Amino acid sequence: MKYCPCCKDDLELRRLDGVERQVCCNSECDFVVWDNPVPVVAGLVTYQDKLLLARNSAWPEGMFSLITGYLERHESPQAAIEREVKEETGLDVTQVDFIGHYPFVAKNQIIMAFATKAQGELCLNDEISEIELINPADIRHKDFGKLVLTAQIIHEWLQVFESG
Questions:
Q1: For the chain: N or C, fewer Cβ within 10 A?
Q2: Where are the beta strands (DSSP E) in 6-72?
Q3: Which residues of the chain fall short of a pLDDT of 50?
């Protein structure tokens, strides 16, 4: 960003709260580019006693991950993952359990991950090109390649799932 969206003056780098930030040059304008992370929800969906992984239509074949989406204004994270699962798979979420939160620095996101149980008739939207259903006992051997965060979330879920 080069210009202030409030007053259209130039932005400059200035140290603020111990961090270099873009700040409006106009002394009467208090605009700061805070660059806070964007909240995203991710769901490890259990469907028909199997774990559902999805391949985004833009991804190469063989690359599967969790159901994900952005948290919308005035929406709780739980409602967001219920909505995303419904939009992307057509399934109705019947249970939501928090797994953890994870910084995804590469995209300036904070991921809030949930284990969900879902039921209904599977109906993929345009965003998802295919799904993979895996027995929970077999997920530990799945190679997620460069999707390191997906593997981490599933690993942490497995620790709770297998102990409980």
A1: C
A2: 11-16, 19-24, 32-33, 38-47, 50-56, 67-70
A3: none
